[in-house]
């Protein structure tokens, strides 16, 4: 009797526990949905839905007054057959390539230079001066650089003349303007990558480096054989991050050159704003932004694949 | 032994030389800021005189007064900027920590898929969302309203990701113990998780405030009239008005515009740096 009753209670207890766990799981799930609700609703409203609508608009001629109509791939065909838009696409890709390369490369070199023992205040000062441009809006610093780059009243040209060198038409020469914008972009953004690389370098195990030093491995080989493979995931992250930002380049160009001279520095973002909000070619502007997004997705995907293949 | 000592001595020299070069570079990085700050104190008559100054020639605030009394409603624009940045920062701190708590600590169906979809958002540029938002705002009367700009950014994939990363690195023993004691999930979130998140919240708060303060593309599309503008777009307008002579006045406006961000960074450099490395390294 006693045994049977014991078995009975324990079975009942086990059932209770099971029921309680499933109750708990259900309560947990309910809490989970509640906690993600605000973000999900906002994300749906301001990211997912607009992206879908943009993709739909890209296949339409949008005119709320006289009526919209489907145009199939016409907007994309127009973009990829128009010499001007192709020039602008090329400008953007060229800008992105050089801006990403130099931002990441200079950031890495600066980080290597700063990755050594120094007093705290000095490190604070370095972080301050290299990171300050990162946190100030490009809209603000571009105005300042506009005065630096100006032709006759420009500050850089003033010092060039002082040294007996010829002035440079930093922003008004079609062959020079893009380079000047890239220079400013690297000044502005490279500190971000420097900070990330400093943290990554501190993660490289000291013992391995010290062993290499003992073996008399030259510094450049230490870097190529040990440090670089170790921080390569971070390098890939930086390249993706920099590319996403660079492909959207807008304000520095708008303020420094307004896309000129001619179309020499016009970027996709500027074209989107001009077409979409200047001439109200909403459908065409949507197709350009879809092209831009697809480029970003492709670059991210390619870099993900490469990093999976090469990293460690 | 001699060899080791010699390499050590040489290493010390190399270190010193590199640091010296870096100091020169670091000062070079600061020149545009030194210039803009110094120029804001130059009298209008001397604005374009060469050589430029990189240290304030006087402490004459008349250019600042001129900005505040100019045709551009600078005070109004400044208030707009503060409003947008504060609303967005507070909004993100709330929504992102809520979501991060769910993603890091709770189990529910579809959690990982949802998180993945949220992360994809990091790759969508503002350019691909702005047209429908503009059209929608036009219908709802939210165009030319600073608050419209704020609404767009009440949550962010980056914020959720950052806080979740940080939460995952924290032990969850306390939270589990509280659950065993029968505490509700909201109470656990509020009493136990949130206090542990202070460094991550500071980082996200500062990064979000700075980012919002600096929005240009979105602001330029959504905000037309001067009274509705935020500082980055207003600066361009101000420059237009002042183009012919008043470089000093533009730079006074600029100094005031970058002040909050610079102060924030001077005070809380540590949190910004930690926040950025936290999100950058652990991807």
TrEMBL record, chain A:
Alphabetical keyword list: Cell membrane, Membrane, Transmembrane, Transmembrane helix, Transport
Residues annotated as domain ABC transmembrane type-1: 89-303
Subcellular location: Cell membrane
Topological relation to the membrane, as annotated: Multi-pass membrane protein
Main location: membrane
Keyword Transport attached: yes
Transmembrane stretches, start-end: 33-62, 95-114, 121-148, 191-209, 230-250, 282-302
Top-rank taxon: Bacteria
Family recorded in the similarity comment: Belongs to the binding-protein-dependent transport system permease family.
Name of the molecule in the record: Sugar ABC transporter permease
The species this protein was found in: Devosia nitrariae
Lineage, highest ranks first: Bacteria, Pseudomonadati, Pseudomonadota, Alphaproteobacteria, Hyphomicrobiales
């Amino acid at each position: 009797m006693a045994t049977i009753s014991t078995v009975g209670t324990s079975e009942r207890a086990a059932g209770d526990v099971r029921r309680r766990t499933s109750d708990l799981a259900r309560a947990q799930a309910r809490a989970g949905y509640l906690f993600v609700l605000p973000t999900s609703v906002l994300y749906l409203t301001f990211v997912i839905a607009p992206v879908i609508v943009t993709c739909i608009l890209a296949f339409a001629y949008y005119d709320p007054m006289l009526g919209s109509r489907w145009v199939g791939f016409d907007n994309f065909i127009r973009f990829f057959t128009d010499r001007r838009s192709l020039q602008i696409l090329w400008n953007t890709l060229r800008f992105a390539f050089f801006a990403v390369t130099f931002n990441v490369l200079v950031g890495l070199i600066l980080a290597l230079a700063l990755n050594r023992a120094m007093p705290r205040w000095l490190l604070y000062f370095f972080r301050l001066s290299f990171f300050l441009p990162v946190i100030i809006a490009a809209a603000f610093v571009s105005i300042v650089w506009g005065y630096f780059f100006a032709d006759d009243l420009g500050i850089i040209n003033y010092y060039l003349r002082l040294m007996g060198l010829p002035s440079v038409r930093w922003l008004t020469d079609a062959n020079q303007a893009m380079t000047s914008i890239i220079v400013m972009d690297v000044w502005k953004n490279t500190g971000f990558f420097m900070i990330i690389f400093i943290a990554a370098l501190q993660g490289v195990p000291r013992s391995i480096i010290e062993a290499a030093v003992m073996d008399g491995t030259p510094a450049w080989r230490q870097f190529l054989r040990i440090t670089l493979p170790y921080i390569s995931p971070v390098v890939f992250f930086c390249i993706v991050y920099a590319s996403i930002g660079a492909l959207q380049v807008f304000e520095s160009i708008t303020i420094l050159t307004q896309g000129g001279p001619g179309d020499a520095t016009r970027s996709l973002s500027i074209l989107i704003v001009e077409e979409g909000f200047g001439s109200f070619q909403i459908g065409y502007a949507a197709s350009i932004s879809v092209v831009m997004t697809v480029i970003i997705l492709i670059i991210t995907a390619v870099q993900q694949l490469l990093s999976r293949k090469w990293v460690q | 032994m001699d060899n080791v000592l010699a390499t050590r001595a040489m290493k010390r020299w190399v270190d010193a030389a590199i640091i010296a070069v870096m100091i020169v570079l670091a000062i070079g990085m600061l020149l545009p800021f030194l210039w803009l700050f110094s120029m804001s104190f130059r009298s209008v008559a001397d604005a374009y005189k060469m050589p430029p100054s990189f240290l304030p020639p006087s402490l004459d605030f008349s250019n600042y007064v001129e900005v505040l009394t100019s045709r551009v409603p600078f005070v109004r624009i400044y208030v707009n900027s503060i409003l947008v940045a504060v609303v967005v920062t507070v909004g993100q701190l709330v929504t992102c920590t809520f979501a991060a708590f769910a993603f890091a600590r709770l189990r529910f169906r579809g959690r990982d898929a949802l998180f993945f979809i949220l992360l994809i958002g990091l790759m969508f540029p503002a350019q691909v969302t702005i047209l429908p938002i503009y059209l929608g705002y036009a219908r709802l009367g939210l165009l030319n309203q600073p608050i419209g700009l704020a609404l767009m950014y009440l949550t962010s994939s980056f914020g959720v990701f950052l806080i979740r990363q940080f939460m995952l690195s924290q032990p969850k023993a306390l939270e589990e113990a509280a659950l065993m004691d029968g505490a509700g999930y909201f109470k656990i979130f509020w009493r136990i998780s949130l206090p542990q998140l202070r460094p991550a919240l500071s980082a996200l708060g500062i990064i979000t405030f700075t980012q919002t303060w600096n929005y240009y593309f979105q602001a330029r599309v959504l905000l037309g009239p001067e009274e509705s503008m935020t500082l980055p777009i207003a600066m361009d307008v101000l420059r237009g008005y002042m183009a012919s002579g008043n470089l000093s006045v533009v730079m006074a406006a600029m100094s005031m515009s970058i002040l909050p961000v610079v102060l924030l960074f001077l005070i809380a450099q540590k949190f910004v740096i930690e926040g950025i490395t936290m999100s950058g390294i652990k991807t």
